[in-house]
Specification:
Layout: H1 8-23, H2 26-33, H3 37-61, H4 72-94, H5 97-104, H6 107-119, H7 125-142, H8 152-171, H9 178-197, H10 209-229, H11 236-258, H12 263-291
Helix pairs in contact: 1-10, 1-11, 1-12, 2-10, 2-11, 3-4, 3-9, 3-10, 4-8, 4-9, 5-7, 5-8, 6-8, 6-11, 7-11, 7-12, 8-11, 9-10, 11-12
């Protein structure tokens, strides 16, 4: 019997969950940077773009061709991830983290809808159940903290969720290098932040640079590349479900590093989300192994 990593779905799940685990440190690093959203978005975008251009250059020098097709999927991939990055940071500044993360948890819904509309991807019962269970878990975590009226921060979080979902859809049809498309996203993030700031500003505290470089040069570039590659192996709404683990793990790292107790609700709701992710993952790994290592999980009608 072939090993678990011999099939397509398992390989995609490892890539995506690895990226999600790394990106789960994003909230803690944003807290450590402690800079206005515009300044953070600007330099995060610059660092992401720089890291990806360097990575593409190293791969090209090593003989791995970095393809760029002037295609809608490549530009869309970069544009959607760039918008999501800016919207997420500004949402965190404008409303509570709980509101932002709860609204971001609707990504599986938007991914399933956009995947059905643009990719004609079918949505089966296990996926629907996993989406519902994940949303229940996120509701348990954040229900007591939600504000009664949707404001600027909540709308920005919704924009980030829809944009990330659109990025997953574009990634599944992208032929260009994930390094180059992620670099485009970083550049667009930086340009958007510079426009909102009406210029370029630098962090006013030298201690902010270390966590900023860690986030923008390592955590976000590697995580975004993993999420960009994932939809090549998995249905886009499955990728979005796995990304929910970030909203569960993020408060844990903030708790460990900044002594902010996530509370019993977070532990209970987080267990539900993790259970849904693990359950869906194991279901499709078993099915993929039965059907053969080369099967494509996305059904196109």
């Amino acid at each position: 019997m072939p090993g678990m990593l011999d099939n397509r779905y398992a390989r995609g799940a490892v890539v995506v969950l690895g990226g999600v685990l790394l990106m789960s440190f994003d909230a803690a690093l944003i807290r450590a940077v402690d800079q206005p959203a515009g300044v953070l978005s600007l330099w995060r975008g610059v660092l992401i773009c720089t890291a990806m251009v360097l990575a593409a250059g190293v791969c090209h020098a090593a003989g791995v061709k970095q393809r760029w097709d002037n295609e809608w999927a490549a530009w869309g991939n970069g544009l959607m991830f760039g918008i999501a990055s800016v919207a997420f940071v500004y949402s965190i500044e404008s409303t509570s983290a709980a509101n932002t993360l709860f609204i971001m948890a609707t990504m599986p819904v938007w991914s399933a809808v956009l995947g059905r509309v643009f990719l004609r991807a079918s949505i089966d019962r296990p996926t629907v159940l996993a989406i519902l269970a994940s949303l229940v878990g996120m509701t348990v975590i954040f229900a007591s903290q939600l504000s009664s009226a949707a404001g600027r921060g909540e709308l920005l979080a919704l924009l980030a969720a829809v944009s990330m979902s659109g990025g997953f859809v574009c990634s599944s049809r992208r032929r260009s290098s994930p390094f180059l498309t992620t670099a485009v996203g970083g550049a667009l993030c930086a340009l958007t932040a510079a426009a909102l700031l009406h210029g370029v500003e630098v962090p006013d505290d030298s201690s902010s640079w270390l966590p900023l470089v860690a986030e923008g040069f390592v955590v976000m570039p590697v995580g975004l590349v993993c999420l960009s590659v994932g939809p090549k192996f998995l249905p886009v709404h499955h990728v979005a479900i796995f990304v929910l683990a970030e909203t569960v793990l993020g408060p844990v790292w903030v708790w460990l590093f900044f002594r902010e107790n996530p509370g019993a609700a977070s532990l209970v709701g987080g267990s539900v989300v993790i259970g849904a992710i693990v359950g869906l993952n194991m279901h499709y790994i078993r099915r993929s192994r039965r059907e053969g290592s080369g099967c494509d999980v996305i059904n196109v009608t």
